[in-house]
Amino acid sequence: MGLSASDLFKSTSDEYNTRLQVRNRAFLTFITVATTIFGVSLADANFAFASVGISFISLVINLLLIHHQQVMTQILLYQQILISHQDSDFPIWHKFNAIELERSRRSEDFAALVIHVLFNVSGLGNAFIRGILFPSPTSVSIYIRLLIFGLSCLASLYSLWLLLEMPRRRRTLLTHRDG
Question: Transmembrane ranges (predicted)?
Fold first, then answer.
């Protein structure tokens, strides 16, 4: 006595929903932490350079988000396979269209990109103006600040590239079942 396709579909749906919640919480955590860091860096000149940390946090969050996205896409692919091998008693409410799902995700992807660009550019701009061009008297060496700023710029670029790459990876996985 094994599990039916319907039971497997429901179990994978529960996993998908859990990962969706975790992914959304991670994204909201990024917004909260980035807002806090940016606010602190604006409030006090001694903490102005702290806003370079936003890019590093953005990168870490996006690496986590892309992992969850890949697993969620694999779950959707598995559900498509379950539906394609359906029995006659397979519930009709399991039907879904991966193309429609992809279209609905575009607005979410765009919003995430806008938010990350906003925080990354604002944080780097603030760090450059108030931390490099007009540093406070208690700032560390300009060479160390330039190194950290450069690494933060690289982290920001890679983070934004991951955001741009995520929808393409998802589309590729959902349209190529033989992978």
Answer: 26-43, 49-66, 110-130, 142-164
What is the number of other CB atoms lying within 10 angstroms of the CB of residue 80? 15
As a whole number of angstroms, the distance between CA 38 and CA 36 comes to 5
pLDDT digits (tens, 9 = 90+) for 19-78: 889 989 999 999 999 999 999 999 988 888 899 999 999 999 999 998 888 888 888 888
For residue 113, give both structure tokens. 């990109």
Coil, strand or helix at 93: helix
Q: Which pTM was predicted?
A: 0.83
Asked whether 156 and 124 are in contact (CB, 8 A), the reply is yes
Tokens standing for residue 158:
């890679």
Number of domains the chain contains: 1
The whole domain housing 109 covers 5-175
Q: What is the secondary structure of 17-65 as a DSSP string?
A: HHHHHHHHHHHHHHHHHHHHHHHHHHH-GGGGGGGGHHHHHHHHHHHHH
Residue 2 φ then ψ, to 5°: -100, 180
